[in-house]
């Protein structure tokens, strides 16, 4: 049986209005009265009807998270943190997979459907700042590198600095022929371009010439593409002594290809990734990686959205950086 405010009021011997004031956190309630109401709430296991409350406020109590691919572990792990952070606001999270396609991203950015969601946390690949500026209505927070300093609040890490530090880590181990896997020349490849820029900057810092033959493209950042790129590098006669993969799933594929080729990691070739997905902590060897603070990214995004939904809709878009850490593991440093 689901109890109502009226049941709590009768149990506590107060008015329905007083119970409502306690439930909604109003401070102007006498301590002894508040104690009686809270005791009645506990005894009846009363739970507020959030749906009704949201409808009265013109809200659904639902936000959306739209990402390109849920089978990329980074996005799956990020989604878990968004759900946790949103629950603190009493929100349900609708998760949408866009595939990075322009039309599906337009649907997501437009609010998915009339009155379905209150706000959107969005990692676009196809849409540009101009595309998003032309949309009206749904409060939005952007993730990723495709659009920043644009028409909406944005949370992200410094990809150039992170990639630069990882490449410097490999060079600092005495590796001089550092390959890169994951370059992309398409408009959607913003993350790839930034990480490639960081890689190139670290080589320049060390006085090492940039060698195009050591850079392998990957149209998608999956394990299969990482393995294929590593095989292609080896088949071309290039023999790197280290490989920086632009995400961890590429790195896991590269590890497999190196194993098949009879090369030892890290003795023959050191391997590093980016994203700190759980798989990399259990691979053999464990994977050196850049760890974006996914929990912090999620919390910043949810808090920004809460500010907008709370009435702060006309303030200029905010750009919030999130921290990251380089985590050395067995794939670059022998145990």
UniProtKB/TrEMBL annotation:
Region entry Disordered: which residue ranges? 312-335
Is the keyword Transcription in the record?
Answer: yes
**Occurrences of domain HTH lacI-type (ranges):** 4-57
Xref: CDD domains: HTH_LacI (cd01392), PBP1_LacI_sugar_binding-like (cd06267)
N-terminal signal peptide = none
User: What Pfam families would the database entry show?
Assistant: LacI (PF00356), Peripla_BP_3 (PF13377)
Keywords carried by this UniProt record: DNA-binding, Transcription, Transcription regulation
What InterPro entries does the database record attribute to this sequence? HTH_LacI, LacI/GalR-like_sensor, Lambda_DNA-bd_dom_sf, Peripla_BP_I
Q: Which PANTHER family match?
A: HTH-TYPE TRANSCRIPTIONAL REGULATOR GALS, LACI-RELATED TRANSCRIPTIONAL REPRESSOR
What is the protein name stated in its UniProt record?
A: LacI family transcriptional regulator
């Amino acid at each position: 049986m689901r109890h109502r405010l009226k049941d709590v009021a009768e149990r506590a011997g107060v008015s329905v209005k007083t119970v409502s004031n306690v439930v909604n956190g109003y401070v102007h309630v006498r301590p002894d009265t508040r104690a009686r109401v809270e005791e009645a709430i506990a005894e009846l296991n009363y739970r507020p009807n959030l749906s009704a409350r949201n409808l009265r406020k013109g809200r659904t109590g639902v936000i959306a998270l739209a990402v390109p691919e849920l089978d990329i572990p980074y996005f799956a792990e990020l989604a878990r943190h968004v759900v946790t952070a949103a629950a603190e606001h009493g929100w349900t999270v609708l998760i949408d997979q866009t595939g990075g396609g322009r039309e599906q991203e337009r649907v997501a950015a437009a609010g998915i459907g009339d009155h379905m969601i209150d706000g959107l946390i969005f990692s676009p690949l196809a849409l540009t700042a101009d595309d998003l500026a032309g949309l009206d209505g749904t409060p939005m927070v952007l993730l990723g590198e495709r659009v920043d300093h644009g028409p909406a609040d944005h949370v992200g890490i410094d990809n150039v600095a992170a990639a630069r530090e990882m490449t410097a880590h490999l060079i600092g181990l005495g590796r001089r022929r550092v390959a890169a896997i994951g370059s992309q020349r398409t408009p959607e490849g913003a993350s790839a371009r930034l990480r490639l820029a960081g890689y190139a900057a670290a080589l320049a810092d060390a006085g090492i010439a940039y060698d195009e033959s050591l850079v392998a493209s990957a149209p998608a950042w999956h394990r299969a593409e990482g393995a294929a790129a590593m095989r292609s590098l080896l088949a071309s006669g290039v023999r790197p002594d280290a490989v920086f993969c632009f995400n961890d799933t590429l790195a896991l594929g590269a590890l497999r290809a190196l194993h098949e080729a009879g090369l030892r990691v890290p003795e023959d070739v050191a391997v590093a990734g980016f994203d700190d997905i759980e798989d990399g902590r259990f691979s053999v060897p464990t994977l050196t990686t850049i760890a974006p603070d996914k929990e912090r990214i999620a919390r910043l995004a949810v808090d920004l959205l809460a500010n907008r939904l709370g009435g702060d809709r006309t303030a200029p878009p905010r750009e919030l950086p999130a921290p990251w850490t380089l985590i050395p593991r067995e794939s670059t440093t022998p145990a």
